[in-house]
Description:
By secondary structure, the protein is an alpha+beta fold. It is 49% helix and 9% strand.
Amino acid sequence: MSFNYFPCSPDDPRAMKNPAIQLYGNRFFSDQTVTELLVEFLLVVFSPKRFGKDWMYDGALPSLDKVWSNGNDFAYAPQARLNLKLFSFLGASRLDSRHQIHRVHYEALLQQLLERIHIADSGDKDDVIRTIENLFLGFQGAGSGRTWCAQSFLPVSPAFLAGESIWKDSKARKNQIDEWYDLLETRSSYFDSNQHLFFARGGELLYLQVCNALSQSQDCIAEWCRDGKVGLSPQEQDPVWLHDELNCTFESMMNYCPSTLTDLAEFVDSRLDPETPRKTDEIDGERRFVSAGWCNADSWREGYLFAVDLLRLLKTDLDVIDRIYLMEAACAMQVLRTLAMQSLRVTGADRGIGSPGYRLVVSAPDEKSSVIRRLSQHSVKEVEKNIFRSLRGANIKLPDDETDCDKILKQADSSYGGKLFVGLSKRIGLVVPKRGSGARFILNERLLRLLVVTTVPLGGRLTFETFKNLLEHRHGLVFDANGLERASKWLGGNGIYLSADTDKWLQEMLEAAGFLIHLSDSCALVHNPINAGKEIK
């Protein structure tokens, strides 16, 4: 059978030559950082959207009517925010990347700002400007070693969400461009927004997975929840309810940031120089839209789990920075879950162990048992091998030329497949060591906190056994003797029998973080002390 895609069939023959894009969607890529996954995802959430050429939408998520079923191309309109990036990041960028035109326009922005600053008492306007620059620089998210325009802000406010812009220095020097606005007349020639080098489309794909999941029928979701034992509440199994709740929480998410910061960022970007955003964000007087790609339609199950994770995170009373860091980890975990689950659909290598069809053996950070360490290492390799096999599955279309085929598969393995899974796992601390042999799964404090917040009801509690079972069915993570036995069978063994205290380290880690309540020697509760946040009108 062939793959089905959402929201419409791919129309990019070049992209579809990549077996990983055929399998997962357009696209997860190893060069995209964890921060940029979240930033790109939120950029889609908070940008105007278009379906086909007629239907426009400004909300976080489109309504659950016939929009998706019509197979329309989905596009969104990101803002470039070149003025804001130039003002904030030029001083922190590499000296060799600061073209003279950039310096001149930067000075022009400073002059405009100086003229608009009014200090009642004695004060230094230059001090005010330096304070604003340092404030914005403090929200630098990713790309500190890049050209200023290729850097990203932490997504603390919609005003800090900006699309990718890649500076074409050699072309500008060759053509001897010496005016800022001449660069913008043919923007793609000098500030390219179509390369997807750092905003590699992973955030777009995550957004489409959520929309794909919410487009499923309630009966379909209820049946999957019952068979998969993922432990969602009756409300969470209702896609209409989940859609409406996500819409509300997304809309209130950015209101936690002081409005003064948002207003100040908007002022620097569009009020000091309105011409730059007009030239970068519009084409012939109309908003500039970019296609958001596609995802594999079968990924709705992991997409639904991701939607629930997001809702639970967004409903917490965590401060905005803590929430952003946990959302980054959630995005990364979703990519890993997608790679593992979708590859199983192609290879059928679940071996009857139940959802999600694979098992990741999580060892203690300082694991002493050589048996558990080897089992964990084996599970890392097995996921990588399974992704390797899936990229060569019967449904994958590859070129007839053997040389081209080998080249394409090698690139897919290193940048889009198994190496992506392992590399991303190392970035978030799910796999150690970062270099060298013996890669195995562990948990760090941030991942543990994410798992508690997205698994245990806000302000509620679950038994330790229930908590472990839910992590196994939602993420494939196993810790105790029974889980390790199932993992051993998935890895091709006959089962393995270990002592009952293999998960003692997890209890200790939960207790040290304030998440564990001991009722007796044989019973403990995992407690989520984080309360639901107040809805901001």
